[in-house]
Amino acid sequence: MPINDPISIQFPRRGRGQLSPPDEYATLRERPGLVRSALPNGSTVWLVARHEDVRTVLTDPRISASPLHPGFPTIGRNGTVPPPDQIPGWFVAYDPPEHTRFRKALIPEFTVRRVAELRPAIQRIVDSCIDAMLAGGTTADLVSAYALPVPSLVICELLGVPRSDRELFESRTRVLVTFTSSDDEREAATKDLLLYIAKLIAMKQRFPGRDLISRLLKAGVLTPKEISGVALLLLIAGHETTANNIALGAVMLLLNRQWIHTPGVVEEVLRYLSVADRVALRVALEDVEIGGQLIRAGEGIVPLGAAANHDEGTFDRACEFDPSRSARHHVAFGYGVHQCLGQNLVRIEMETVFECLFRRIPTLELDTAVEDLPFKYDGVLFGLHALPVRW
To answer: Which residues of 156-192 are buried (b: 16+ CB within 10 A; e: fewer)?
Structure first.
């Protein structure tokens, strides 16, 4: 099968104000087998677009999430998963049984019961951000005033980080998830975060608190260096992804106000937007057949989460935003052993964020046309750089 256009891995989102997945994803799903495509760096990968095939890729033990294996895909500088020897504890880059060791240590921290204990803190954070917005007048940038600070402060609460240090995490994380950041900028941002986390861990060793880092230190299953990598992963994955879902979700609800108070709105926002479309990079460890296509050992694979979540064979009227549907089988959190550990926390955050925002500011509306919003086409995660609103 011929190789596609070298930049086809970065199909632009079009239509519906750039909020829906690329039109080309439907074509990928309709083609038999899989589609071979070239990355910007010249290497080739298999694109996986159908829901069933994506879930198969994410659960087959012959397919690896480790960048240490030859052929592992690289999508730009910030699309690269750091090797384990660079950041011990970045466990999403591990395969079982090493990945299992980290996951077992962290599962108790993200159960429905443990996450529910954070609900009062989440409510206080949300209310304080809305209070500040209302005190500032009748306009705001919903990204900087709400979508970014809420998950950032929640992660600070989870890890036991002083709130005064929030700006450090936000500024350094923005560097790491932006395609246009230079290698030097990315390296400096990573060093800053790891240095801070190391100091935080040292403080928790002397003065334990009621937080995730203190509990992991007490359990003794992970080393301080591994905990440092885990904390960095949670900071980046836990606040940047959620912030994008909050901002884009607010746009979806402002455009579809009839769904604001529907119980299934969070799941539908997650499914429809699929902000982490291309993060689950994989490589075949041995020959494997997916969707009728033979993938050879050493060939890279890119499961397209947004394509899977808009598969008409799985979701009726998949191109429509409809929170009344049952969408819990989406793959916005991944699937299989690498499925996002923090999904319970994300759900509670998003539920609280949307409920409070539209209850306390019922006249909220966009302060610019959707087509003019500054979408994040320069990052590994889809989102918004800013969201002007008024009330």
So the answer is: bbbbbbeeeebeebbebbebbbbbebeeeebeebbee
Q: In what order do the strands lie in the sheet with 388-390?
A: 139-141, 388-390, 365-366
Where are the strands (E) in the chain, listed by range?
Answer: 35-38, 44-48, 63-64, 139-141, 282-284, 288-290, 293-295, 300-303, 365-366, 388-390
6 falls in which pLDDT band (50, 70, 90)? Answer: very low
Strands 44-48 vs 300-303: parallel, antiparallel or unpaired = parallel
pLDDT at 24: 87
pTM for this prediction: 0.91
The amino acid occupying position 123 is Q
Compute the average pLDDT of residues 30-51: 89
Task: Give 144-161 pLDDT, tens digit per residue.
Answer: 999 988 998 899 899 998
Which pLDDT does position 364 carry in this prediction?
98
Answer whether the bond into residue 362 is a cis peptide, omega within 30°.
no
Give 157-207 as a 3 state SS string.
Answer: HHHCCCHHHHHHHHHHHHHHCECCCCHHHHHHHHHHHHHHHHHHHHHHHHC
Residue pair 21/306 in contact by the 8 Å Cβ criterion: yes
For residue 167, give both structure tokens: 């700006």
DSSP assignment of 28-51 equals HHHSSS-EEEE-TTS-EEEEE-SH
pLDDT in tens, 46-73: 999 999 999 999 999 999 999 999 999 9
| pLDDT > 70: percent of the chain | 92
Residue that the structure tokens 């980290």 belong to:
102
Instruction: Fill in the DSSP letter of residue 384.
Output: B
Q: Could you give phi then psi for residue 296, rounded to 5 degrees?
A: -80, 155
Report the amino acid identity of residue 380. Answer: V
Q: What is the largest CA-CA distance in the chain?
A: 60
pLDDT over 90 percentage in the chain: 68
Cα gap 59→373, rounded to integer Å: 37
Over the range 320-348, which residues count as b (16 or more CB within 10 Å of their CB) and which as e? ebbbebebeebbbbbbbebebbbebbbbb
Give the alpha-carbon dihedral of 164, 165, 169, 170, to 10 degrees: 30
